[in-house]
Amino acid sequence: MTELKNDTFLRALQRQPVEYTPVWMMRQAGRYLPEYRATRGKAGDFMSLCMNPELACEVTLQPLERYPLDAAILFSDILTIPDAMGLGLYFETGEGPRFKKTVRTQADVDALPVVDGEKHLTYVCDAVRTIRRELNGRIPLIGFSGSPWTLATYMVEGGGSKDHARSKALAYDQPELMHGLLDKLARSVTAYLNDQIRAGAQAVQIFDTWGGALSHNGYQEFSLRYMKQIVDGLIKESEGRPVPVILFTKNGGQWLEKMADTGATALGLDWTTDIGAARKRVGDRVALQGNMDPSMLKTSPKRIREEVAAILESYGSGEGHIFNLGHGITPEVDPENAGAFINAVKELSAKYHR
Amino acid sequence: MTELKNDTFLRALQRQPVEYTPVWMMRQAGRYLPEYRATRGKAGDFMSLCMNPELACEVTLQPLERYPLDAAILFSDILTIPDAMGLGLYFETGEGPRFKKTVRTQADVDALPVVDGEKHLTYVCDAVRTIRRELNGRIPLIGFSGSPWTLATYMVEGGGSKDHARSKALAYDQPELMHGLLDKLARSVTAYLNDQIRAGAQAVQIFDTWGGALSHNGYQEFSLRYMKQIVDGLIKESEGRPVPVILFTKNGGQWLEKMADTGATALGLDWTTDIGAARKRVGDRVALQGNMDPSMLKTSPKRIREEVAAILESYGSGEGHIFNLGHGITPEVDPENAGAFINAVKELSAKYHR
Fold it and tell me: Which among B314, B234, B170 is positioned nearest to A293, based on CA atoms?
């Protein structure tokens, strides 16, 4: 493999010295970029874009041409695993993702296969290889998956839902059925992420978008436990470097100590958590990634810069911070404001690393 | 006024001794009850029901006929204030609330009147008086309002929204405009709640449904500050008793200490917070209300009973707990399960109050 020219992101994840706070954005290859919309138009629908390694590579690299980002993230969808399990993912225009089949009974769970990357999601592993080749050592590549609980909610509901009431009621009422589903998902996610790592992913992130909808105890039983199972099962080293794992539970700010107990390398924070307070709680055990409110990108370069300064100041001096948004960048954002965000992090963070 | 026969709820709010943990449910007068659906059918649409004091009283009392609840809550909507300000509230079938006018410029803010209860929302004060008369001292009546920030999000967005991006961007980018709006709302809410108290409300709750969408600092600046302004301006005593104030910020579990600093009597908790841990943090300063996941009501009486037991055990012995759900009861719940919930609280809580 080509030598990595900028490993700031990987060093920060290990809480090693860096020259500035590295930065990337969740959903940085996305609809806010006109060049993304053009490629997506070429591909046809969203899943055709995900399933075409050359085009997935193209959109992965697009934000890097505009901004001095410190990491690339594989362009894909969190729902590739349930789709590979046979549920039939599709996207309604103007709606979120939907599944043709749902999973609500023990028989439904029993019928599901455990999937992996190379065999069942070849197009994802091919995309990872293509992106690594095209990155040519410029910055590291992040692989990712949805968390078992997050995937399970979509599989039970048949798509997105406002309050995940059906999935939660199923978990609370028939925990054995839900544990059977979550175990199959955790084994699939582990195999899938390991195949992404073998194909060239240099760090992985687990997106637990809906863990924060569970009760305090439910989160530990139905979401965190399976993320720990994944962390335990992941390849620890690749290309002579440790492979960091980032856990991101949206609305998980109350549970950081328990999340750090999983052995993850870093925790993603949404914007409701004060990053300085989070560092006091778990900063001796994990790196922290985040956490500007994506809505801030709808203001002005000046206001964005003030907010970046406030978050850097809250984290304070020393290592272990990867700057990011607290959730994905949204379609209406002006790309110039995204650039102002990235540049502000670069310019204002150096003084915290002397 | 008639003497209050059951003041368990009011005593628990003051952290005084009680015989069992009092219980009520947010949105207890609601669509899960067939008798509610019948009355609503009679009224026509939702706002006609809110605006008819006799029918609002009828639905307020319905759950009390089924369950041994320890408090009644005024049947109304949180959006009565923006409607009284002239924005034109209406409900689209199958959609949430909408406004005919939005508030997005300084001129929009300047044009808004400050409203109160008796003059501008007479139908609400009349409903309070009617309900008090019909309750005849059986249990206390709770009045309520939306928080200024929560009302502002609907006014800026023109209705409900997924991520409140427009309201947050406006707050972050033009804080003076937003503070002008929030101050008018806080003054209106204060006057409105005080008129509800004068009309007979024996406790009040401020519903901050969307404060938890703000950033850590944004919450304090745009939501909590105005709830404190309201708490400071409320009538402290009525009918020879203190009037307790309950603050409920959904997704506010990280901010309980700051919420307690407002001087509120009690804090409402959603289900993501461990109530025992919350008690350790702020239980010497406030009572705590909550916090079963409403999705639990879609399981079974047995499972509901287990969850009630776990929450009671987490809070532990002694005073200051009012049992509730962590958010409103949803339309699909079987009324029998709601009854199982109420009964479980009554039966299982006595041992914590010996």
Answer: B170
A77 is catalytic: yes
Establish, for the pair of chains A and B, how many residue pairs have beta carbons separated by less than 8 Å: 101
> Given this model, what pLDDT does residue A1 score?
60
Q: Which residues of chain A make contact with B299, given a CB cutoff of 8 A?
A: 169, 172-173
Tell me: the pLDDT tens digits for B22-66?
999 999 999 999 999 999 999 988 999 999 999 999 999 999 999
Predicted confidence at residue A24, as pLDDT, reads: 98
Give the Cα-Cα-Cα angle B210, B216, B217 (nearest 5 degrees): 105
pLDDT at B175 over 80: yes
Minimum Cα–Cα distance from A168: chain B residue: B295
Give the residue among B219, B268, B226, B265 at the shortest CA–CA distance from B242. Answer: B265
Residue whose pair of structure tokens reads 């390398």 in the numeric block: A265
Note the pTM of the prediction, 2 decimals: 0.96
Strands B237-238 and A72-73: unpaired
- Low-confidence residues of chain A, pLDDT below 70? 1
User: Residue holding tokens 């335990």?
Assistant: A232
Percent of chain A with pLDDT over 70: 100
Cα A285–Cα A291–Cα A293 angle in degrees, nearest 5: 160
DSSP A164: -
| Closest C-alpha among B58, B67, B89 to residue B151 | B89
- The answer to whether residue B81 scores a pLDDT higher than 90 is yes
Cis peptide bond prior to A291, omega within 30° of 0: yes
Report the distance separating Cα B218 and Cα B211, nearest Å: 9
> A123 catalytic, yes or no?
no
Nearest neighbour of A215 by CB, restricted to B169, B254, B272: B272
CB B244 within 8 A of CB B13: yes
To 5 degrees, how large is the angle CA B200–CA B56–CA B22? Answer: 60
- 3-state class of B143 per DSSP? strand
Give A12→chain B minimum CA distance, Å: 24
Q: Is residue B1 over pLDDT 70?
A: no
Spatial separation of the C-alpha atoms in residues A72 and B324, rounded to whole Å = 45
Residues in a beta bridge with B110? none
